Amino acid sequence: MRKPFVAGNWKMNKTVDQATLLVADMLPGLEAVKTVDRVVCPPATSLMVISGMLAGTEVGLGAQNLHWEESGAFTGELSPAMVKEFCQYVIIGHSERRAYFGDTDETVNKKTKAAFAIGLTPIVCVGETLAEYEAGKTGAVVERQVKEGLKDIDPKTAEKLIVAYEPIWAIGTGKAAGPEEANDVIGNVVRKNLAGMFGNDVAQMIRILYGGSVKSENAGEFFHQSDIDGGLVGGASLKAGDFVKIVEAAA
Ligand code: 13P
User: Fold this and answer.
1) Which residue among 96, 128, 132, 166 is the active-site one?
2) Which atom number of ligand 1 is nearest to the Cα of residue 173?
3) Which atom of ligand 1 is nearest to the CA of 215?
4) What homologous superfamily does CATH list for 5-250?
5) Where are the domains of the chain?
6) How far is the CA of 158 from the centre of ligand 1 (A)?
7) Looking at beta carbons, which pairs linking 46-50 to residues 24 or more positions away fall under 8 Å?
8) Mutate which of 233, 238, 246 for ligand 1 pocket (most atoms within 8 A of beta carbon)
9) Alpha-carbon distance 149 to 139, whole Å?
10) What's the whole-model pTM score?
11) What is the pLDDT along the chain (251 residues), one digit of tens a residue?
């Protein structure tokens, strides 16, 4: 049995003051749902303060990106050790990073290995564009992202991996994928390829999330699907009540 997992990706939203208020608002509700792994991923400027607020709670903290090198001349980047000072998780290869900041399957692979090497749990994102979806290329695109992004990872390490399937056309559009359709990609493309790479036992342990217009109203339909183990939530994770309801739906 895989423990449900719900993470809030705040993207580029909330100053430190706003982030503090939001976490204070949602923390009691999140703390109450023990049967779900719940994680918040605020912008980097708030990680230090939020890590203090979450100390001693069961709510995890994640960064939204990291660089694979240990240190050096990489202006604007955060090293794995810098992220590890405050976080347990890190989002890698989000479609917005792939689209606007040059992340590729190759850099996703480097970042994923660097995250594991320092003891962070990577949340690796995959998903097809609208054009790829309409051309019937979803399976091929997601298969390539899984195989290339996660290659040469030790199966024992891979057990801890979190994968998020986020069809890009469903992100921030209010147009979620159909729950059965998302479950089909997650089961028959993502988990199947993970089984080919790491063996079926490991593939059955890896949590795979759906992301893209998850709301409190539709979350239950996704989480009832056999291969969907939780959600990576964008917009709805910026409202305490909505995010807590989504976590409750995962329970
Ligand atoms: P929305 O929930 O706002 O569609 O964003 C999804 C997402 O990209 C989470 O990483």
Assistant:
1) 166
2) 4
3) 2
4) Aldolase class I (3.20.20.70)
5) 5-250
6) 24
7) 46/14, 46/15, 46/16, 46/19, 46/20, 47/83, 47/86, 47/87, 48/85, 48/86, 49/16, 49/19, 49/20, 50/19, 50/20, 50/23, 50/86
8) 233
9) 15
10) 0.98
11) 899 999 999 999 999 999 999 999 999 999 999 999 999 999 999 999 999 999 999 999 999 999 999 999 999 999 999 999 999 999 999 999 999 999 999 999 999 999 999 999 999 999 999 999 999 999 999 999 999 999 999 999 999 999 999 999 999 998 888 999 999 999 999 999 999 999 999 999 999 999 999 999 999 999 999 999 999 999 999 999 999 999 999 99
Minimum-distance ligand 1 atom for the alpha carbon of 237: 2
Of all protein residues, whose CA lies closest to atom 9 belonging to ligand 1? 234
Identify residue 25 by its one-letter amino acid code.
Answer: D
Of the candidates 163, 11, 184, the one whose C-alpha atom is nearest the C-alpha of residue 100 is 11
- What tokens were used for 167? 């069809």
Distance 232 CA to ligand 1 centre (A): 7
Q: Show the ligand 1 pocket: residues with CB < 6 angstroms.
A: 9, 94, 166, 171-172, 211-214, 232-236
234 neighbors 211 (Cβ within 8 angstroms) = yes
Are 11 and 96 contacting, i.e. CB atoms less than 8 angstroms apart?
yes
Q: Is 166 a catalytic residue?
A: yes
Task: Answer yes or no: are the C-beta atoms of 128 and 142 closer than 8 Å.
Answer: yes
Q: How many CB atoms lie within 10 A of CB 127?
A: 27
Q: Does the active-site annotation cover 181? A: no
78 C-alpha to ligand 1 centroid (Å):
22
**What is the end-to-end Cα distance of the chain in Å, rounded?**
13
